[in-house]
Amino acid sequence: MTAVVETPARALRRTYSRWTALFVLCAGTLMTILDGNIVTVALPAVQSDLGFSGPGLAWVVNAYLIPFGGLLLLVGRLGDLVGRKRMFAAGLAVFTAASVLCGVATSQGMLIAARALQGVGGAMTAAVVLGMLVALFPEPREQARAIAVFSAVGAAGGALGTFLGGALTQALNWHWIFLINLPIGIVALLAAIRVLDAEEGEGLGRGADYPGAALVTGALMLTVYVIVGSGDREPATTFLLALAALALFTAFTVRQARAARPLLRLRLFGSRLLSGANAVQILMIATMYGFQFLGALYVQRVLGFGELLTGTAFLPAPVAIGVLMLGLSARTIGRFGPYRVLLAGLVLIVAGMALLSRAPADGSYVADVLPPLLSLSVGFAAAMPALTGLAMSGARQEDAGLASGVFNTTQVVGGSLGLAVLSVVAAGRTERLLEGGAGLVAATAEGYQSAFRVGTAIAVGALVLAAVVLRPRAGAGS
């Protein structure tokens, strides 16, 4: 057989095709990430319009997180079986349709049900993206650049969602934070069908271990439910639910060890890099998600910013993250190695949270919010691509879709954990101060300071864990 010689023109077309595919993957991911944050600033308007109670309002967020976090492993494996392109495109379609249902919702039940459907579509999309990215860019240097671009979109998208949520809610109404997904979703879906390479997958005949899928999906959904609702329940109830989740995880592990065709190959966790990176990510994302949520509340409830001004106050974050990830991240990782870059980023995250824990009741945005915001943004811009590269380098090619699902799952667990823990700490401290006669603004600020101190400790834990577990072995490079 005559070998096909790759001419410069053919190589250029192949490169253009791969980066176009990356753009499509980023567009689909951006839509789901924006939606996770765009709701936060609009919650007071949703509550006023639909009559949610305080605890009930939390389910506008929780209804999305629970199916999203619970289904990632299952749809990641199904993506390997049916083809990742099919799963990604189907996820975009489900997410876009659910967004329209959210946008036209006129009752609490309709909005919560549509948000749950959004979570299903988001999981289908997110679970397979990293696996597709690694397959598109197998060469280490190009893969580092592609991961930097993808991470920049994800990280900046979270902060950008806060701005768009405030802008759309104040300029139009809260319905548009969901309806804006319709044109984006249609364009992304059509582009995905046209641009992404089709994959046959292993075939459903290989099996997805459906009993195992039921166990792990139930375990993950229950875990997220336990975390996000912990502040609204009696401790004994939370403990019993946590035990039930642990029992489901145990049954799932036993099932995977014995199943002929397991959903989750346990050998995956034999990789020090993959397991360690996921553990570090839970702590890092817990810190960052807690900062995004409580930082926005500090700006609104303590500094007195409105919805649009709050969103604008967080704009330096996506700008800094985008510029650094796209312009410097891949080159920095290539020069110093992902381990050193990750540690440097985590140091900046610790410093940012420590600064934020001093934000007073009479503080100002320029002096007390902007410096830690920039430190956290630069730190995350350095740490996230390095951590992603370390995690995916620890997975075999045939496990890429599953490893992508695991990595996205730990993001959701980390975000839910950070939101639950830091919110409970802030609310508990504020309530005790109010009972002691403190003023509302002073008590609220002190509550946020306590939460940010806990966030600093979590970030220190991520730094220590990364330094110990992810240290390169002798002869393995940086």
Question: What do you see in this structure?
Answer:
It is built from 17 helices and no strands. The protein is mainly α and 478 residues long. It has one domain: Growth Hormone, Chain: A (Up-down Bundle). The two termini are 41 Å apart. It is found in: Cell membrane. It is a multi-pass membrane protein. It comes from Streptomyces pseudovenezuelae. This is MFS transporter.
Compact summary:
The protein is mostly helical and 478 residues long. The protein has 17 helices and no strands.
Instruction: Name the beta content range.
Output: under 5%
| CATH class membership | Mainly Alpha
Query: How many structural domains are formed by the residues?
Result: 1
Ends: how far apart? 41 Å
Q: pLDDT average, as an integer?
A: 79
Low-confidence stretches: 1-5
What is the helix/strand order? HHHHHHHHHHHHHHHHH
Largest sheet: none
- How helix-rich are the residues, as a percent range? over 70%
Envelope shape: globular
CATH fold title: Growth Hormone, Chain: A
CATH homologous superfamily, by name? MFS general substrate transporter like domains
Number of strands: 0
What is the CATH architecture assignment? Up-down Bundle
User: Number of DSSP helices?
Assistant: 17
Radius of gyration: 22 Å
Q: Structural class given helices, strands, pairing?
A: mainly alpha
Give me the oligomer status.
single chain
Protein name: MFS transporter
Subcellular location: Cell membrane
Domain Major facilitator superfamily (MFS) profile: 21-474
Membrane topology: Multi-pass membrane protein
